[in-house]
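FORM 7B: Structural annotation worksheet

SECTION A. Query
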Amino acid sequence: MCKEENECLKGKEERRQKAKELIENNIMSGYLVYERDRVIGWCNAGDKSGYAPVRGNKEYEAGDGADGKTMAVYCIDIAPGYRGKGIASMVMERVLQDAKEEGYQYVEGYPFTDPKRKYQYRGPVRLYEKYGFEMCRTGERICVMRKTI
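SECTION B. Predicted structure
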């Protein structure tokens, strides 16, 4: 949790810069949401086996031993002022559609365990529940939620 607002902002800017570098180097992929010429949302989603922050990290394991091609939804971040308008739902529907078309067996998400956390850039648990994701594991910081396609 951020002790001061500036600390949170610094973390956001660092994450944004790191994401930009990963995208430019074809390491990270996802979806951008636009309104006219302004980006209002971002979803980092891609093959779990090819995404270093989750691949092999025990915190992101579902714990059930199931093998299969898994799309990982690492974050869904909607700009302030656009939240609560169905944009995250629209993104999730697209992710699920693409995962099915691309032959994935599962889609996983990693929302934070604390629902009161100020910056929920991984999407709230309720979003995943709305689309039929099941809780596989609850860790100290994050939950692992999975949907079979």
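SECTION C. Observations
The radius of gyration is 15 Å. Residues 1-9 have pLDDT under 50 and may be disordered.

SECTION D. Sign-off
Analyst initials: ____
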